[in-house]
């Protein structure tokens, strides 16, 4: 992390103002480091807390939530000016705290007192609701910048590749992208009821979901999973609800062989095997990735869950790492721009540029073509991304089908809307999730 500090000339007169300055310096250091190094904010802040163990839980919360708040509203806040100028950065912190409705009012007021907007009467203009439109009005009142719009909460280049025709749906989408989704998880090796009881014994608030029988909603509270028995004993696996849709669409059958061709750390591999067990059927999963560190993490997670029917085979060359014409199902969760995860990682929308989208389709199509060779006659081929852009999703699938006529699309039922479609997009506003895309193809017999 950069060791740059905000050049503060202000003099603190109260304890709250001293804390406000201290927090501002730390947050500026983290914020500027993310922008300059293009490293993900969660990685930067994790490294910082690892190196600075002096911070208690309250300090960590103020620093973390203020940092992510800046990025969440950066489309508006950046219009206040250069963040490296002292009074402007204090204005940015105060504005983000008010838009996020943070509870540390004394710190926020200290930031305001040192800001370029110190003449604004306190309290700051308060949004009349959690609506992004009401937050926009509050920001305009605070900043006196009336050219701001809700579209600006996402970069211009994103809108060039994600067209939403309905203005109502567009506003709902932006509203969702301006909030954090809850922590979603799955029950495995036991019923959801049993896992919820285990969580309750550890005083962890959780609830089920109407969509899938094994889904668990852990809310928005910070949880130390290593102190939660349901997790350490392998009964709970963290996985966003949108991601869970992918495994549900795979719908593995009895005694089936599946290949997770881009497994990463194996969340969907674990889900596939869990779904097989829930159905009382047996099967095997082979997981592949080019990153051995990710595959090692998968093995740790499988061991924790007591799963014995998952094996790994890394991609070492461009040659297929598994048997051709062999698998009942192949899942290609392709590398992508990850625009569907921007709710959890608001910094990525500002440290990436359009190349994060435009450079992916060629690679995605190549991986899909290679992986398709492993599907046996009558087998299923699923293509998924956590992107919301057409060129990474529908365009890749159409290009593949044009060149591989032995595959055809299957119709899927959207689990959140009931819509029947061949190209299923999970939008964040539909069920308070990340964004995902999935299609299911079948190799003709």
TrEMBL record:
Catalytic site positions:
386 (nucleophile)
Signal peptide start-end? none
SAM-dependent MTase RsmB/NOP-type domain spans which residues?
Answer: 171-444
- BP term (GO), one: rRNA base methylation
Listed A to Z, the keywords are:
Methyltransferase, RNA-binding, S-adenosyl-L-methionine, Transferase
Cite a single GO MF annotation. Answer: RNA binding
Q: Which residues bind S-adenosyl-L-methionine?
A: 289, 333
What InterPro entries does the annotation carry?
A: MeTrfase_RsmB-F_NOP2_cat, MeTrfase_RsmB-F_NOP2_dom, RCMT, SAM-dependent_MTases_sf
Q: Which PROSITE patterns match?
A: SAM_MT_RSMB_NOP
Question: Which Pfam families does the entry link to?
Answer: Methyltr_RsmB-F
Name the GO cellular-component terms.
cytosol
Q: Which residues cross the membrane?
A: none
**Belongs to which family?**
Belongs to the class I-like SAM-binding methyltransferase superfamily. RsmB/NOP family.
Q: What is this protein called?
A: RsmB/NOP family class I SAM-dependent RNA methyltransferase
């Amino acid at each position: 992390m950069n060791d740059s500090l905000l050049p503060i000339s202000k003099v603190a007169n109260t304890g709250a103002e001293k804390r406000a300055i201290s927090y501002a310096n730390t947050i500026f250091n983290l914020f500027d480091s993310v922008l300059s190094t293009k490293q993900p904010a969660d990685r930067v802040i994790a490294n910082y807390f690892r190196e600075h163990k002096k911070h208690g839980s309250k300090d960590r919360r103020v620093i973390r939530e203020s940092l992510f708040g800046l990025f969440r509203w950066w489309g508006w806040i950046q219009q206040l000016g250069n963040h490296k100028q002292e009074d402007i950065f204090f204005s940015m912190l105060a504005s983000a705290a008010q838009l996020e409705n943070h509870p540390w009012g004394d710190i926020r007021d200290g930031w305001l007192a040192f800001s370029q907007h110190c003449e604004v009467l306190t309290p700051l203009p308060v949004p009349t609701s959690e609506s992004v439109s009401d937050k926009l009005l509050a920001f305009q009142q605070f900043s006196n910048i009336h050219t701001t719009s809700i579209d600006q909460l996402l970069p211009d280049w994103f809108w060039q590749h994600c067209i939403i025709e309905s203005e109502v749906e567009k506003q709902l989408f932006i509203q969702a992208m301006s909030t954090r989704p809850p922590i979603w998880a799955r029950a495995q090796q036991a019923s959801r009821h049993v896992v919820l009881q285990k969580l309750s014994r550890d005083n962890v608030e959780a609830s089920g979901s109407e969509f899938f029988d094994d889904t668990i909603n852990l809310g928005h509270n910070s949880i130390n999973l290593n102190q939660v028995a349901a997790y350490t004993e392998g009964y709970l696996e963290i996985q966003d609800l949108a991601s869970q849709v992918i495994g549900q669409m795979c719908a593995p059958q009895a005694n089936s062989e599946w290949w997770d061709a881009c497994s990463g750390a194996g969340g969907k591999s674990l889900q596939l095997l869990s779904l097989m067990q829930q159905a009382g059927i047996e099967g095997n999963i082979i997981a592949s990735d080019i990153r051995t560190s990710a595959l090692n993490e998968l093995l740790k997670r499988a061991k924790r869950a007591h799963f014995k029917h998952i094996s790994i085979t890394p991609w070492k060359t461009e040659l297929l790492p598994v048997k051709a014409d062999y698998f009942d199902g192949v899942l290609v969760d392709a590398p992508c721009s990850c625009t569907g995860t921007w709710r959890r990682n608001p910094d990525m929308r500002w440290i990436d540029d359009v190349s994060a989208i435009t450079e992916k389709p060629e690679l995605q199509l190549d991986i899909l073509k290679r992986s398709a060779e492993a599907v046996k006659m009558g087998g299923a081929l699923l293509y998924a991304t956590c992107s919301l852009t057409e060129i990474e999703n529908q365009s890749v699938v159409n290009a593949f089908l044009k060149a591989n006529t032995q595959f055809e699309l299957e119709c899927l039922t959207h689990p959140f809307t009931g819509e029947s479609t061949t190209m299923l997009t999970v939008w964040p506003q539909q069920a308070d999730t990340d964004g995902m895309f999935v299609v299911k193809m079948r190799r003709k017999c």
